[in-house]
Amino acid sequence: MRTWPIRRHVFALDHPIRFSMNIMAIVRRIQRVVKRALHRDFVAFEGVVLPPESLRFCGTAFRDNDTFLRSSEAECKRLKDEMGLSSTSSVLEIGCGPARLPIGILKDFGPIQRYYGVDISKGAIRWCNAHIKRKHPEYEFLHLDLKHDRYNPNGIDFTQGFQLPLEPASFDIIYLHSVFANMLADDIRAYAREFARLLRPGGKIFLTAFVEDGVPDMTVNPDDYILVPQGTLHFVRYERAYFFRMFEESGLKIDRYLQSEDLGGQSAVHLSLAD
Length: 275
What we know:
The protein is of the alpha/beta class. The chain has helices at 6-10, 16-39, 65-83, 100-108, 122-133, 185-198, 240-248; strands spanning 43-45, 48-50, 90-94, 114-119, 139-143, 171-176, 199-212, 218-220, 236-239, 252-259, 267-273. The protein is built from seven helices and eleven strands.
């Protein structure tokens, strides 16, 4: 804890001007400390650094520190149990946001071989670099100015041959949570091609999306569904066979499909490279 140089100020009582100046210096220093405390861009909780509420755009429930941290741990456990995550894994996350998954991995494993997170949010990536990468250089984060009609309408069109700045066959696990929940088919096909390029043999993909049987191939903001649509491209629902074909066309295969209560109405899909 930082100590204040009180002695020099207290014993200046015999000189009124010096005493006044020293009191003002102490006040200014206290004001700076208070200002930093009020405007700090992180939350310390259970020995873990969490992002501020303003960056937790993964749902209002995640504004609660305990909910956010428990969800981080749950996603890490999911990848351990279902994807074989270990300390030697290389992980790519699309839509990393304010490091929900990395926080869980760091709390459980500490450093892993490699983690690479990308997001269209400059604020989220700035926070991740300041609070995760600075202490754990094997955790890398990249801002991508990619087009999304809801979140970034003026970005680069990913469907026009854009590739992530990453080497082929460099990841054991590719993870996306809710990214395809509001993405159009052409964009998903572009990502599927990238996944097939970046995934190592034996690697696995985990993603979530709104996928069902007995519905049209693709419906944007359906009225008769789990959510009430709010604004442009709030969510997109896919017919299961149609959704699967988008990945199979790029040389991926479906290993598992399931619906779970903890996915907010979405389905989880596990994929790998086709034989």
